[in-house]
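Why should sequence recovery work at all? Because a backbone constrains its sequence more than one might expect. Tight turns favour small or flexible residues, buried strands favour hydrophobic ones, and helices have their own preferences. The token representation captures these environments compactly. In the example below, the structure is given first.
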């Protein structure tokens, strides 16, 4: 079978306008996919060069396929299950920053270059005071970027028109702000001069971004079938869901230079991404965290099974529409549209998202994702949101276990063991307290300021309500207790 290449895709050569630190599945199914569509729609006209930012791994699969690959999006579109395959042609080359150092640094000399995309994991944007400028390349990602920018600054003699726009997508808060801070620290550490610092400050733009798409990666289990369907071999194929969102926060307007929305792409430019992050965390992530313990103890194993369970779906939808959305600041129509998209995503028949996987570190997740909605509801209405309160009791029921084994607390559902994974102090708390009467247990749990950042027993009637729901779950079982509030 023929290997996918430029001849098959009919790739059009374009000026290199983007360098991308990272060649993984997410970037290729998200950023590079969007740029490919913007190229096709005549809105961008730019190619991407991938940079392998670590010293291990091989780019041979990219070169073998001329950096061409297929993105297969699978999910609900217009109420129907769809598979949408696209040959992505926006990547022109892939370069090893270690094995091809001179070629990598020469990219900084490109007159057409304007954007730097990165996804070097959450641990990638860190200041390392042991990093050294003279290394080829420096060890850390901020070190590599700083030296790359310095070379460009020197090559173009400090031309303010040759600054670059940074588009980091690492999953940390204020990723662009943190990246810029690291770069400026390295400029000082390496004594690169005030003129260069000023160029970075004035000529370059560091955006902070929020990204959202589930990317399920290479379809290893069905790859032979995929190749037969496509008619060619593609070892870079990547699968994901149709939904996508890219929120770009910038102090300068870059929308004309990066006009992806004009190509119909789900990109939002804003001066403040926080309301969008709050929307995602509280609706999407908050829904997951609030229904997972309930659904699992009702006998379900995946998100899709949960959505097919009318009791769970009803519970989840009422949390979103009645208890979460009223506490958020974006226009209600926007929030409801996002909520509808979330429910569609949860119904994706192609994604088997295990509830136990989502349950990892549920106590800290509940604090970050659900507690602000509960407290916001109380502040607005001077009453407790019943389903979020029930979810808190369900979390306690889910963490019921007396045995610690291999750093996991062992729970039981219908006689079968399951592993509860969380920080050691959290698991030890539940191991010690879970056999107490509901009132004592709830008071102890809500009183853990290290879990919640405050003593939740001070929230009017919360302790009694949580204890009451927990007693009901213990006496009747999760589904019967759930149906009494639904």
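From this structural description, the recovered sequence reads:
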């Amino acid at each position: 079978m023929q290997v996918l290449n430029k001849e098959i895709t009919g790739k059009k050569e374009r000026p290199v306008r983007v360098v991308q630190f990272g060649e993984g599945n997410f970037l290729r199914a998200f950023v590079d996919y969007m740029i490919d569509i913007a190229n096709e729609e005549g809105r961008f006209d730019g190619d991407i060069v991938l940079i392998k930012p670590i010293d291990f791994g091989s780019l041979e699969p990219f070169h073998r396929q001329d950096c061409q690959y297929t993105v297969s999006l699978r999910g609900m579109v217009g109420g129907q299950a769809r598979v949408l395959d696209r040959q992505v042609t926006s990547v022109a080359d892939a370069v090893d920053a270690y094995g091809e150092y001179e070629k990598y640094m020469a990219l900084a000399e490109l007159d057409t270059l304007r954007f730097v995309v990165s996804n070097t994991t959450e641990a990638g944007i860190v200041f390392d005071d042991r990093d050294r400028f003279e290394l080829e390349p420096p060890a850390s990602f901020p070190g590599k970027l700083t030296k790359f920018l310095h070379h460009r600054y020197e090559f173009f003699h400090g031309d303010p028109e040759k600054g670059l726009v940074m588009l980091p997508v690492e999953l940390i808060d204020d990723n662009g702000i943190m990246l810029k801070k690291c770069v400026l620290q390295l400029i000082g550490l390496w004594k690169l001069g005030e003129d260069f610092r000023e160029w970075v400050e004035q000529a370059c733009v560091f955006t902070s971004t929020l990204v959202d798409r589930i990317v399920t990666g290479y379809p290893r289990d069905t790859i032979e079938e995929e190749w037969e369907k496509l008619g060619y071999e593609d070892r870079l194929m990547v699968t994901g869901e149709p939904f996508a969102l890219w929120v770009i926060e910038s102090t300068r307007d870059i929308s004309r230079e990066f006009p992806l929305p004009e190509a119909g792409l789900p990109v939002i430019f804003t001066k403040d991404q926080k309301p969008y992050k709050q929307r995602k965390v509280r609706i999407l992530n908050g829904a997951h965290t609030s229904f997972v313990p309930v659904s699992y103890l009702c006998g379900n194993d995946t998100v899709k099974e949960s959505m097919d369970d009318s009791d769970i779906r009803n519970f989840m939808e009422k949390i979103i529409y009645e208890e979460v959305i009223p506490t958020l600041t974006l226009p209600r129509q926007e929030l409801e549209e996002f909520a509808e998209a979330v429910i569609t995503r949860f119904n994706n028949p192609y994604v088997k998202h295990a509830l136990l996987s989502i349950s990892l570190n549920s106590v800290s997740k509940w604090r970050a994702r659900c507690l602000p909605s509960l407290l916001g509801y109380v502040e607005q209405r001077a009453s407790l949101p019943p389903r979020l309160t029930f979810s808190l009791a369900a979390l306690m029921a889910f963490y019921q276990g007396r045995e610690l084994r291999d750093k996991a607390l062992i729970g039981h559902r219908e006689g079968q063991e399951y592993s509860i994974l969380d920080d050691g102090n959290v698991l030890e708390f539940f191991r010690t307290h879970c056999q107490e009467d509901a009132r004592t247990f709830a008071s102890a749990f809500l009183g853990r300021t290290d879990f919640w950042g405050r003593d939740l027993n001070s929230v009017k009637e919360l302790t009694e309500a949580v204890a009451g729901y927990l007693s009901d779950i213990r006496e009747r079982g999760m589904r019967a207790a759930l149906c009494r509030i639904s």
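A few observations help interpret the result. The longest helix spans residues 274-297.
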